[in-house]
Amino acid sequence: MTRLKTLGNRVSTQSSALPVTQPGSWRTDKATSGQRGYTYAWQKASKAFLRQHPLCAMCERRGRVTAATLVDHVEAHRGDMTLFWDRTNWQPLCTPCHSSEKQREEAGRL
Ligand SMILES: [Zn+2]
Questions:
Q1: CA-to-CA distance for 47 and 31, rounded, in angstroms?
Q2: Domain range for residue 64?
Q3: 56, 94 contact by CB (below 8 A)
Q4: Which residues of 6-45 are buried (b: 16+ CB within 10 A; e: fewer)?
Q5: What is the 94 CA–ligand 1 centroid distance (Å)?
Q6: What is the pTM assigned to this prediction?
Q7: Residue 63 region, left (φ>0) first, then alpha (ψ -120 to 50), else beta?
Q8: What percent of the chain has pLDDT over 90?
Q9: 85 alpha carbon – ligand 1 mean position (Å)
Q10: Do the domain assignments include residue 20?
């Protein structure tokens, strides 16, 4: 029993001495949403935009009054930061409109 315990201790000590993370592996974790432009700055800017444009633009066109919950890019920016930050390319949308807009976009080109 004592021998088995000693062996177990030695094994666990050895495994903890091994490098747990590969060098540079943290970089892949960092380059996620920030790389696509959706940074803290975007969150702040889009919230300010929603305060100025609190109603969903698509609902408004249909004569409905719905509170907008997010800012959508009218023209897909596809990583283009000029288009991304161009406020004339922004529209306030509610979540249902945003999902239907994206579905329409994916279903076919206009
Ligand atoms: Zn809407």
A1: 23
A2: 38-110
A3: yes
A4: eeeeeeeeeeeeeeeeeeeeeeeeeeeeeeebeeeebeee
A5: 4
A6: 0.62
A7: left
A8: 55
A9: 22
A10: no
State in Å, rounded, how far the first CA of the chain is from the last one: 74
Distance 65 CA to ligand 1 centre (A): 8
Higher pLDDT, 110 or 59: 59
Decide if 64 is inside a domain: yes
Q: 1 lies in a domain?
A: no
Q: Is 106 exposed, middle or buried (0-12, 13-18, 19+ CB in 10 A)?
A: exposed
DSSP characters over 16-75: HHS--S-TTHHHHHHSSGGGGT--HHHHHHHHHHHHHS-B-HHHHHTT---B--EEEESS
How many angstroms does the Cα of residue 88 sit away from the middle of ligand 1?
18
